[in-house]
Design goal:
Elements: H1 2-24, H2 29-51, H3 61-106, H4 122-148, E1 154-162, E2 173-177, H5 188-200, E3 205-208, H6 220-227, E4 236-238, H7 242-246, H8 250-259, E5 263-264, E6 268-274, E7 277-284, H9 290-301, E8 310-314, H10 320-325, E9 330-333, E10 344-346, E11 349-351, E12 363-367, E13 370-374, E14 392-400
Parallel strand pairs: 1-14, 2-3, 3-4, 4-5, 7-8, 8-9, 9-13
Antiparallel strand pairs: 2-14, 6-7, 10-11, 12-13
Helix pairs in contact: 1-2, 1-3, 3-4, 5-6, 6-8
Length: 401
Amino acid sequence: MLMTGLVAVVQCFFYLKVTQYLESNHKPAWMKTLTRVVFLLFNLPMVITLLWRPDVVSLPAWFMVVAVYPFYVWHYSLLFLFLLFAAARLLQLPFLSLAWLWKWLSRKKNESHDARTVRVDPQRRRILRQGITVLAGAAFATTTFGIIRNNRFEISHVDVPITNLPDELQGFTIGLLSDIHSSIFMSRSQMEEYAAAVNSLNCNMVAVVGDFVNSMVEEVYPFAEAFSTLKASRGVYGVLGNHDYFTKNVEIVAREVNSCGIKLLRNDRTTIEHSGKKLDLIGIDDLGNPLHARKLIAKQVAGADEGIPKILLAHRPYFFPQAAEQNIHLTLSGHTHGGQIVFARIGGDVIAPARMVSPYVAGLYSIGSAHMYVSRGIGTVGIPVRINCPPELTKISLVKA
């Protein structure tokens, strides 16, 4: 609801700005009419969906192209511009305050308090308009580009060193995917392509670390149909994510995920055997706080053979320190989408909004001999756009430390 309110404020702000510009520059009436029509076309669907939640799980591809994606390009481009303008104003505020104070202190006594001289610099205004036009064009172009490349995924190959790994488990492979977000922006055909790509990696085991759906329980059915083909010689396992709970029917989601062949570990532990050696695989439900995480992980580790390598599946990466405390060798997580919108990369770190929430955004992290891999995931949330952050499938190989 907060996001909807912000979008409404942004639309009102730009509508007023555009109409004021047209009036002050004496533009023809048809341009004013066109402005009203455009803003109405892009805002009426939002009002309709708020008043009436239609079934949008299986919208035809042509409708997505001509209606849904342009809607998101419009709203999120203007939202980005609004936030940029607001940030610029905040940065200007101290300097404007100092300038006003200086003028007030240096004002001559014989100046009239109400006298004001307004100087209009046409060249400055023209440059400002051109700058705003370029910035708006860049925002729309970037958002459109992010939507077009939304499903062009990468396959990462990662070696993870495991302390005291038996020779028989050297090279054991795990296929990792996360954050599918089955929805109108992740169709069954797209999910079938991802399932085929994972199968082509020929991993010993596959892990799906949550957010099978976006927010509606009916989204689980196309997911289950598409990913029922997943296969691995030592099994396919998964855990629930926060968006699976957003459906308020998490048991239905869990039932359908289990029935399609993905064995959910819900605060549970299982043993995987390979070449006569064992791996302990632990899976925990989506968690709320570090204290709860520590208790759940400790409960599953209690009584386990300390000599057996332990792998933890946990949707959120925030609880890596708690996993390391319990001598978990490898934690597999998702949730962050790798940032989804990444402004820049500095070494192994990223500059993205997600970085403000967690130090663990994407890739491999280590605490002592404990390691965690955070998948960028394959789906999106909020806005169907990925910028500088392509979807990811990962093939992890266990190697001796």
